[in-house]
Write a sequence for this structure.
């Protein structure tokens, strides 16, 4: 091992720790383990995670840029609140932007793009939405490959900024779905919806693929909106 390798190790460990903290925080916020709109007790989180303040604040700052956390110079950090109005806006923006990104991705995607769509869908279809042991809990494996499938569909779009916006909107919408997951009816055939979108995309039928994607997003939004008023989490009603 060279002296350069030795000097690089602390930096690598620090980056690895920051990524680990960010991943854990993101997952717990998405799952509703931190109350939407609630203040984040940084000292308590630091103790629970067994980490120092610096990488924790770094992770929180990244989540601020992802709009999952809000920062206040006087009051520290809090989890971004949820509301019906915000969810409706997210659904509208997803349909608007993902349609454009999907069309572009279908136009430019080659064999590698097709293989990526097929492989992520295959992995997703082998999993169930709910955990097989505890049916009240989400299946983290399904959640991972569900996100990867949607990312794969748009991955050939040649606008990095548009792809970034779409992924961010997807994550923000999924936060609502995961928070209210226990109340949402799981009988809906989401697997068939994913397969239909994939088939239309691989057949290079942009109108059909985008129409199916829009219906898929609308149905998810409707499922969430139907249970939000009856949930114990405080929700601000939209106009």
């Amino acid at each position: 091992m060279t002296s350069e390798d030795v000097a690089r190790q602390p930096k690598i460990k620090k980056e690895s720790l920051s990524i680990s903290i960010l991943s854990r925080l993101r997952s717990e916020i998405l799952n509703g383990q931190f109350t939407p709109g609630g203040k984040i007790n940084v000292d308590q989180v630091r103790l629970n995670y067994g980490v120092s303040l610096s990488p924790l604040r770094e992770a929180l700052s990244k989540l601020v840029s992802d709009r999952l956390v809000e920062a206040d110079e006087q009051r520290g950090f809090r989890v971004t609140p949820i509301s019906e109005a915000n969810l409706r806006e997210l659904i509208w923006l997803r349909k608007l932007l993902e349609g454009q990104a999907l069309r572009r991705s279908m136009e430019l995607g080659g064999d590698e793009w097709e293989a990526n769509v097929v492989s992520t869908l295959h992995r997703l279809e082998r999993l169930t939405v709910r955990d097989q042991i505890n049916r009240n809990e989400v299946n983290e494996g399904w959640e991972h490959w569900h996100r990867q499938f949607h990312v794969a569909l748009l991955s050939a779009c040649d606008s990095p900024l548009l792809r970034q916006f779409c992924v961010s909107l997807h994550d923000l919408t999924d936060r609502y779905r995961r928070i209210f997951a226990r109340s949402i009816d799981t009988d809906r055939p989401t697997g068939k919806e994913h397969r239909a979108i994939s088939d239309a995309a691989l057949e290079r039928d942009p109108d059909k693929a985008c129409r199916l994607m829009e219906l898929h997003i609308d149905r998810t939004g409707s499922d969430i909106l139907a249970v939000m008023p009856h949930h114990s989490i405080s929700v601000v009603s939209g106009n």
